[in-house]
Specification:
Length: 377
């Protein structure tokens, strides 16, 4: 049998000095890392949309404790408690269906956490390959832990709007980091040298997008989706009566003011009005950028997708209002926002490579010593 190590090129003296016998990771490890990154990226997107489904089906308190369900690993063991809660409050926050929805979201979140631990470990082992700092994978790991903590506080703080909105925004932040991690692994056409400070504009675009996501989260976590039922006016006026001070008071329970009174209609109108009108600034800014790059090599694909997603976001936002908040459309509106984050970050990554030679993707990143030796004649 052929000895593969004998045919491999010798390690350079510098490499040997750095880390003993053979510091170079295997191509298998790199392939596993890439698979994990793409899978975790996909799961993050799904989890964000499933989170919207949890909230829209009112399942957030389907298991009112944490991390288990009435102290059990699954709702199967909590049947007695769930039945008792249902008897006490037939239309309350607890039912077997809601408990399962809530627990599936928690299992998927825990699974994503495990995948990200594995990604961070692989990234550490791959750290000696060029351009492969494990710092970003480390940030993703910290972010998923913080996100898990906000998931727990969502339950223990009884769906406090500030906590639930932060949970949503952090979820989008996690998706942004995962997108950057995945974009590093994907080859793309070289982008010409950045004309007109495109990178700075895209950073601004992502900042306003995140602000819009936070405003949207504030609408949904305060249940203000139907506070204005007409469009483009609201209650028949361009500037309806609104109470911004109450609407944007951050430290209060669900449906309450900080004084403990019920939240007013004017406060809900302010919350809804701000989100729908700020949307036009977001759509205009991102729309102009995407239009400008729709034919630029290396940017054209994501730029066109961005244009399509902006149109879809406007459509699902309007449909939510006109058709009185259908579940599927509301989940799609959430998914559309996640799609905008994903495409926006992809554009930023590519702009950050503008004017540089195409970054090696799958094809050329294999460590040379692990390529198969040539077949013997
Ligand atoms: C770039 C544009 C937009 C973005 C990025 C965006 C983003 C979001 C996000 C992230 C949410 C929270 C979803 C959730 O918690 O599951 C939301 C909620 C909402 N948005 Fe938008 N939105 C945009 C435009 C619009 C427009 C134009 C309208 C209406 C004219 C609209 C109406 C709504 C409504 C009614 C909700 C509450 C839905 C619910 O409670 O499930 N949005 N938006």
């Amino acid at each position: 049998m052929m000895d593969r190590t004998a045919s491999a090129p010798a390690a350079t003296p510098a490499a040997r000095d750095l880390s003993g016998p053979d510091p170079r990771p295997s191509a298998g490890l790199l392939a596993r890392y890439r698979k994990l990154v793409f899978l975790a990226w996909f799961l993050t997107l799904d989890l964000i949309m499933f989170g919207a489904f949890v909230r829209l089906t009112d399942s957030g308190l389907g298991c009112p404790d944490w991390p288990g369900c009435y102290g059990h690993f699954s709702p199967l063991g909590a049947g007695e408690h769930i039945r008792a809660a249902l008897e006490a409050m037939p239309y309350g926050p607890v039912s077997a269906f809601k408990a399962w929805i809530e627990m599936i979201h928690r299992y998927a979140g825990a699974f994503l956490g495990l995948m990200i631990i594995a990604i961070a470990l692989c990234a550490w082992r791959l750290r000696r390959l060029p351009d492969r700092s494990p710092a970003l994978a480390g940030c993703v790991l910290v972010m998923v832990c913080v996100q898990g903590a906000f998931g727990a506080w969502t339950v223990t703080h009884r769906l406090m709007p500030l906590v639930v909105t932060t949970h949503l925004v952090l979820g989008m932040g996690l998706l942004a980091l995962m997108t950057w991690l995945a974009a590093r692994e994907k080859a793309h056409a070289p982008v010409p040298a950045d004309p007109g400070a495109g990178r700075a504009w895209m950073i601004l675009g992502l900042a306003v997008l995140f602000l819009q996501v936070a405003l949207g989260g504030w609408v949904s976590t305060n249940y203000a989706a139907l506070a204005c039922m007409d469009f483009p006016t609201c209650h028949g006026a361009w500037l309806p009566p609104m109470d911004f001070r109450e609407g944007y008071a951050l430290l209060r329970g669900l449906g309450q003011l900080s004084s403990g009174e019920l939240i007013s209609q004017d406060a809900l109108t302010a919350i809804h009005w701000t989100h729908r009108n700020f949307a036009f600034l977001v759509i205009a800014l991102l729309g102009v950028l995407a239009w400008r790059w729709r034919r630029t090599p290396g940017l054209a694909g994501p730029a066109r997708l961005l244009l399509a997603l902006l149109a879809l976001q406007l459509l699902t936002g309007l449909t939510t209002i006109f058709f009185q908040w259908p579940l599927l459309i509301a989940v799609m509106h959430n998914g559309g926002a996640a799609g905008l984050v994903l495409v926006g970050v992809t554009l930023l990554w590519r702009l950050s490579r503008a004017g540089k030679p195409a970054r090696p993707g799958r094809e050329t990143h294999e460590p040379p010593h692990d390529r198969k030796p040539p077949k013997a004649a």
